[in-house]
Amino acid sequence: MTRHVDVLIIGAGLSGIGMACHLTREQTGRSYAILERRTAIGGTWDLFKYPGIRSDSDMYTFGYGFRPWNGTKVLADGPHIRQYVEDTAAEYGVTEHIHFGRKVTTARWSSATETWTVEALDEQTGAVETFTSNFLVGCTGYYDYDNGYLPEFPGAADFGGQIVHPQHWPEDLDYRGKKVVVIGSGATAITLIPAMSDDAAHVTMLQRSPTYITTLPANDPVAVGMKLAKVPDKVAYRIGRARNIALQRASFELSRTNPAASRRVLLAAVRAQIGNKIDMRHFTPSYNPWDQRLCVVPNGDLFRVLRSSKASIVTDRIETFTERGIRLASGEELAADIVVSATGLRVQMLGGATLEIDGEPVVTRDRVVYKGTMLDGVPNAMMVLGYTNASWTLKADLAAEYFCRVLNHMREHGYTRMEAIAEEGDRSPDSVMGGALTSGYIQRGDAVMPRQGTRGPWQVINSYFRDRKMLRKAPLDDGVLTFTRASHAAEARPLVATRTA
Questions:
Q1: Is the dihedral of CA 296, 55, 173, 195 positive or negative?
Q2: Distance between CA 428 and CA 455 in Å, rounded?
Q3: 59 exposed, middle or buried (CB, 10 Å; 0-12, 13-18, 19+)?
Q4: Range of the domain at 273
Q5: Statement to judge: residues 469 and 405 lie in one domain
Q6: Statement: the pTM of the whole predicted model exceeds 0.90
Q7: Are strands 481-484 and 417-420 parallel, antiparallel or unpaired?
Q8: What is the per-residue pLDDT across 2-30, written as a single tens digit (0 to 9) for each?
Q9: Is residue 328 a contact partner of residue 319, using CB atoms and an 8 Å limit?
Q10: Does residue 159 share a domain with residue 141?
Q11: 219-222, long-range: CB within 8 Å, 24+ apart, which pairs?
């Protein structure tokens, strides 16, 4: 049986649940459904189970703008974030719209009927189900849920211990009393080191090159103060959110306008944390701040375990794995019972589903992103990608608000199709994230990431204030986004257990 809905959302993580809530909040009058491959809400926060998993953005800005995060932790742990997303879904009646265990394999647009036809595999039964919709929204993020990035380490087959990737953490992994080496220097690695150090015999952080790391208090003093002063939750959230957005932006702008000053500030703060016992070269990157994402540690927990000698840090290259550990280019050998390869993600668009327009395959790398939310030449479709230089949810919220503006505009004027069309001069060789960061996973993802443009609404500059003005206030009819009417729009067929937003 083919089931029809006005808006079909792929993904029930932070972005997908937020999109569904906005459809209701903005009174779009559109029915919707969510297809989610996993068996629970949460996306990233349901998938990752490694020790200490937490946000790498403050919760005032990582939470939804429309639903306060009431905790005082600056960086919340994964289970609490997943619960927050689940509670938000329940509050807005979203949960009943979700079809769990459905992996979207293809999405095909027909100009003749102005509908999307989406095939989804029920991974439990093996049955293929078909859904149709007037609009398609991709809320799948940009990484491959099945496979993390695992380099081909020489000699890995000779290693007598266990190699683990954080993306698929074994529930029964016992590292008590074991020697652990964590390969990597990003957010996952700096989370794992302090989380594992109390139980492991020793944890070594092995990095190829250093990362900028800054420390924040575990509990936000302003949030704590407002709770003590009994400031209403919604008011406190607005104040904290506005403050942290401004601080985020100021930090990023300083790194762009005066990278030397930004570098001095960051390195001085690290030097104050590590003292004289640890070589500062391990924390002195060769690149400028925010060329790669800044890593944050609460209460300096990473520096604390390094000072205590429960953990250590090594900057070197891997020559080969051995039976008992890892031999480095310097000749040093690190003994290990367990190696954790915190080496990043594999980039993937739309959860690996194939996209077609009137029978022609869509190659995302050949498309340009319009206002950071749509692919050129792909009608009636949205794509939610958060910020790389700020909290993901800030952009996801704005994208959802913008989509609702578009839907309401189309309803008011009787439009059935919208599409952004790029001209040749609008295209840039840079990927949508290529101009923002130089992180390894972004460089590896260049082959699949859509392009950003050279001008106007095609440029992706990752500025919340610019995007807020553009997505909330700028005219929808801008000469680039086109709206048309059709005399034979697809007849809406009710989707089982789905209500109008």
A1: positive
A2: 9
A3: buried
A4: 155-343
A5: yes
A6: yes
A7: antiparallel
A8: 899 999 999 999 999 999 999 999 999 99
A9: yes
A10: no
A11: 219/72, 219/73, 219/74, 220/58, 220/60, 220/72, 220/73, 220/74
